[in-house]
Each structure stands twice: as structure tokens, then as C-alpha cells.
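Entry:
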Amino acid sequence: MNSFPLRIPTYKYALLLFLISFLIYGNGIQNRYALDDHLVNQENQLTQGGLEGIGKLFTSYSFKEKQYNYEFRPVLLLTFAIEYAVFGTNPHVSHCISILLFALFSLLLLLFLLKTFSDVPPLVIFLGIILFIVHPIHTEVIDNIKSRDELLVGVFGMGMLIQILNYFEDKKSYRIILAIVLAFAGFLTKQSFYIYVALVPVLYLMLSQKNKINYKQILFTLFCFLVVFVSIKFWQRAFLPKELYQRDFLFYENPLWNQSYFSRVPQGFANSLFYFFLLLWPFDFSCYYGYNQVETVTWLSYLPYLGVLFYAFLIYFATRFLKTNRFLSFSIFLLLINLLAISGVFILIPGIVGERFIFLGSVGFCIACALLIVRVAEKYKWILKTESHWTINYKVILLFVALLLFQIPSVISRNKDWKDEFTLIKKDAATAVNSVKLQDLAALQYYKKAIALNTESPYRTELIQNAELCFLRCLKIDTTYKTCYNNLGALYFISNRVPESLKYYQLALQLEPGNIDILVNMATLYNKQNQVDSALKYYEGALRLNPDFPNLAPFYKQLLLKTNKQAHGIVTIKEIIRIFPSNYTLLLLITDLYNTKSDYLNAVLYLKQAYNLQPTPEILTLIGTLEKLIR
């Protein structure tokens, strides 16, 4: 039997929390950037501007990808802007900050629980937090730099709840002011902060079982948070650019996006079971799930009904233990609220599910596990409690150590998986073989590495084979995935497998006739095969869609000159100019074509139009040169 004091100075717990966090996740500091980290670092001009562009953070959408501009998370980007100003672009610093924030969240969680549940031995609370720290499901939040938003929301959320606790106790107005400031920071970090706001009534419920709390305080607090939320929405409406818009989910992200609410509900209940299974069996994680890694279900499946029973189970025990075991009741409420928010019953989640979304709910799960261990130990008298000490049988210690050893190796191994984007996606694609998006991402990673190698490299052949396998898996799962057909066609093209390349380009074009990438790829293929008429047809189809598409006009002109078809090109470009009468690229292109035919009169005519659009000294000089030739 081993003796442990019931109460230990809080600073010792704090030091242990920080030490354990760095011991478990420290090997991830050496990692580089991985999935989606570019959104907040290298490719985000708002953060790369450092402190000079802070004002833009609060008047711009936070993320931009292709034609999409979405999300408003200025506080998140502010932390990266400050980091960039101090350290420059350094992924190792970012990973270190993630661990620090995780440890800080764990400390604030400890302080919050000690204050809320003063009747619970601190050692029990500490054991629950240790189980939380070592749970492998948190590797995504810590190892994915972009997921700093979840950590910041957690820190702001716990800080807010602590201030509300203080406000309930001493009724000092500055407490609620601090809580409001933290709420502003939380909502401006990520909108999912509302989960922490939803805990305020639960907190009131916990305290009301022991103390008399004025219900007006809780109503006033919730009203303040409503004002915060509405104020932020007004700010967005007033200052964010009107021409930018939120992105839609694609089918592989969530197939229920365009379906009715009623048809989404069964999937939400099934998703809740999926999350609970991840908590119970924290292995075989994936950086992206989506369709069809998460089974899509309807009311005809048994899973939604199991989900309903699961929620009924949670609600029953959360209310049953409300008076007899507030700590257990609170842990169940934590899991319940988080699951309801992320299940998809109310709000759809990109990727259908994601490990980072259950961050707060996992606290409740781990606390419940710690309480279960203590309860079993007390039943079998493996724990003897006095006023100041616990005498603990070695069996309890072995059980707890076994739980840690069950999880810690998985955490350390998973940290290594997040080494970089290629390592992560390669590993997860082998596990999540039914995820359309992940298979496509893996294929693209293999493809990018292959085209960077010499054509004689045996590793290049291996990469191309792996890419082909992943693309084919992708299409087997979702035969409507348009981009994948085009990408597979490009893969076969660089492999000199022309018939297969043409086949998949044509299939892609059938699904998306107006896709300029496919048209250009088709033109390139026919050009390489010296099928001039077909190549011109697709080049011209692309020009009719977007004359400014990168390298399109030069390649088209090169083919015309190579085959002496300038006259054909002039006729075609004149037709396209009717569609784009003020297009600078087309005006220069037709000028060049006339120039090669020595028709300087028409060349000058179109060149002057180009000069009117973009007057430059170079064009003015060229106009003078051509006019001399006319004379």
C-alpha cells in the first residue's frame, strides 16, 4: 500500500501538467507543416504581414482558397501574425506554442474543476486530467498547427468559466467584464466557442445543488454573451468585404449538405457513436474522414436508433447523479453538449467528423474514466481514505499505469505521423481506405513527388503506381468525383499512357463540360500527339472560357506558328474578342499573329487597343516601330 496526501499545493500539479504535456507531445516539435497549415502560415498574407497588417485581420475573411473566402477568425490569425513578427516562419516554434497552449488549457481546467468541485479530492481531478492529456485523440489538435483555434478557444473558454464562477461567488462586476472580454476573444477565434457558453447553465445547475445562486445572475450572464455574439455578427456585416462569400461543402466533405434536415438527423446520431468509439478505442486515426470513411446512414439503419439510446443513456445518468455525484454528472454533461454540437444533428461538419471537434467532450469522458477507477478501487477496498491521506493498493497504481501505457505509445507514434504533409497523408490513406478526399490527397502527393523526379528514377515509377492506386480507389468509392478523373488523366499523360489518359480526360469532360483545366489538358495531349485540329479545338474552347488562363495564349500561339495556321488563329481570336472585347491578352495575341503575317496595319490597330487598356512604354515603342514599317 502507498500513501498519498489528499491535497497537494496547486503549483505542484501545474508543474506536473506542463512537464507531462511536453514529455508526451514534445517529439512533435521537430515536425514541419502538415495538412491545412498553409491556411494560417505560408500562404496567408494576413499573417505573413506581421504586426503591420493587424487592422486587416479584423476587416477580412481569414482564409482564402481558390475562389473561396471563408471564416472570420481574427484572433487566431493575430497570434500567428505576432509569432511571425517575432520568430519568422518557423514550424517548430508553432508546434511548441501548441503544446504550451494545451498545457495551459489543462491547468485552467484543473483550476476550474478544483473551484467548482471543492468537495472532490484534488487527486481524483488530477488523475482525470492526466488521462485527458495522454488520450491520443488530441494529437490532431496539438500536431496540426492550424488547430491552434481549438486550443485558443479552450483557453478562453476555461478562463471565461473561471471568471463566471468568481462572479457567482462575490458578485463583483469586473468579473463579468473579464468574462465578456474572454468571450469576445473566443468567438473571434472560432465560432464553436458557443460550446463553452452552453456550459454556463450547466455550471449554474452544478452550483445550485450546493449553494443558493441567484437565477438573475445566470440570465444576465447569458444575455451578455448574446450581445457579444450579435455584436460580432454586426461587425462582420458592416466591415467584411461584400464580394467575398462563404464556401459550400462538397459531396466528399459531407454528402448531406444539400439534403433536408430530417434526412440529416439519423446521420447525426450515428456520428455520435463514431466519436464515442474513437474515445474508447483511440487508434487508427485519420487526418480526414469524410465520405465514405464514415458510413452514410438513414432511418432504415440500426445505428441512428443506437445513437438515440446512447443519448438517452447520457441524459439519464447526467440527471440521476446531479445530486449524489455532481462531478460525474458534470463530466457526462460535458460529453453530451459537445456531442450534440458536433454530431451533425444541428450543424453540418466538414469531413462529417473530426478528432479535434471532440476536444472538450473528451474531458468529460476522461473524468468519468478516472471516477470509475476510483469507485472500483473503493469497492474492493484498494483505496483507504483518511482525513488527510489516501492509502492506495499497488493494484490501483498498476491499473492506472496500464491505462497510460495503453495510450502513451500511440500518442508518441501519432506525433511522428504528423512529420509533414506527405508522411501524414501517406500513412492515413493506408488506414482510411474508404475516404474519397484522403485517397485523392494521397494520389496528389505521390503525383507531385513523381513529376519532380527524373523520368528514369525507379522511385518515380513506384510513386506513379501508388498515385494510380489511390486515384482508382477514389473513383471506386465515388464515380462522380469530377476532379479525380482529370487528375488520373494527367497521371497517365506523364506516364505516356495516352489511351488511358484520353479516356479519363473525356470522362471528366462529360461530367464537367465547362472545366477549363480539362480542356487545356486535352489540348496538351492532342498537341503532343501531333493531332493539330483536335489540339486547336480544345485550346480555343479554353480561350472562350478564360483567355487569361495561365500559359494558355502562349501555347496556342506556339501551335499556330508551328503549323503555319496564323490565318485560322486570327479568325478565331476575332470571334473570341467579341466575347471579351476588352481583354488585354487577346489583343496582344492577335497583334502577334498579324505581325507574323507582316500585316502591320492590323497589328497596330489591335496593339493600340491594348495600349488604351494598359499603357506602357514598351507597347508605345512597339507601336512606333510597326508604324514605321507601314510607311
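The chain has two domains: 2-415, 544-631.
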